[in-house]
Design a protein that fits this description.
Elements lengths: L11 H15 L1 H9 L4 H23 L1
Amino acid sequence: MIIVPVKEGDNIERALKKFKRKFEKTGAVRELRARKNFEKPSALKRIAKQKAIYVQHLRLMEEQ
């Protein structure tokens, strides 16, 4: 459960912004979207490998 303490005289928009930030950090929406469509473990491994290759390529280009 997410709790956002609101003090007397505090702006409600600021409290809402804090709530949204905390909710985003929990990753609930991301997990729901991931569970919506099943992806095979082999497909997930392939995507992770492609991402690692891409990041490694970016780091090599940054060094040069």
